[in-house]
Amino acid sequence: MRVVEIRGSFGLDSLTVTDRPRPEAGPGQVLVKVNAVSLNYRDLLVAKGQYNPKIPLPLIPGSDGVGEIVAVGPGVDDWKVGDRVAGTFFQAWAEGELTDDRARSTLGGDRDGVFAEYVALERGGVVKVPAHLTDEQAATLPCAALTAWNALVTRGKIKAGDSVLVQGTGGVSIFALQFARMMGARVIATSKSDAKLRRVRELGASDGINYQETPKWDEAVRQLTEGRGVDHIVEVGGAGTLERSFKAVRRGGRVSLIGVLAGNAAGVNPTPVLMKGITLQGIFVGSRQMFSEMNRAVAQSGLVPVVDRVFPLEEARQAFAHMESGAHFGKIVLRL
After folding, report:
1. Percentage, residues of the chain above pLDDT 90
2. Res 286 pLDDT > 60
3. Which domain holds residue 7?
4. What is the pTM of this model?
5. 134 and 215 in one domain?
6. What's the sign of the alpha-carbon dihedral 218, 221, 223, 229?
7. Residue 266 has pLDDT above 90, yes or no
8. How far apart are the first and last CA of the chain?
9. Please, are residues 148 and 94 in contact by the beta-carbon 8 Å criterion?
10. The domain spanning residue 63 has which CATH number?
11. Sign of the CA dihedral running 116, 121, 124, 130
12. I need a surface site. Which of 61, 100, 234, 273 has the fewest CB within 10 A?
């Protein structure tokens, strides 16, 4: 079967389409024929050796894939051949809290990922996907969508009338915009591209801030909220933007730390967290139970993920380069 591997050494030039033996469904597993996969920023970091340089190579990257079950292993009676499923980011996190053992079960990191024609997954490591979505659309859900859902809904307890700030127009931020609007919240978005800001307004954002033209975007956020600040911030910049997020969020508001796109600059002052009573929460995707709950909401609402571009599997290296360029709006997908 065809797979994408990181071979020999880290770097995008090491991404190679090659062949591996087709896996079998072992005890407690299902074998999935993969139809589409999507990229996350984590996959780019893994490929470049910046996520965990100690990961053994070769490695099949990718945590997000959708396909149909073609075989079930011994002891599996809750899935059948023909079921259309997505794999879960954490194969061992079904529900409850994230433990050390569960955290060591990630696809495309701790284990080979889903950038392959067939993958053997745990019976508790797959979920049914919403029927109204194409494979390409459904493949965007396991990591980016669930991260945004966990931040705003599961842990964020968002409600109608709340205000949300999303940073940029990558997968997590666009899903956060869509979920916030689905829940009746107001969304303010930032980007360095006026064209992308026009697109987020089309998706329902009330306001867009060009952070290159307005580097003190936290002040603009407060002006847009009559000096109060927003209720929730989906923080994908990390240390490079965190201090401005502390200024842009209201007293008692919530900042969900998800990414480090703006780098790991030292010297972030935590005093506002104390003085303003801010809840700063780290979000690391979510459990299978959260995934199933999110999919029910997606199905009921008819939400459609935003797919930026679809590449064939053979152009995996070009897809990673497209993500690295930052030109995308929403999710990048590979079709098998």
Report:
1. 95
2. yes
3. 2-144+286-335
4. 0.96
5. no
6. negative
7. no
8. 11
9. no
10. 3.90.180.10
11. positive
12. 100
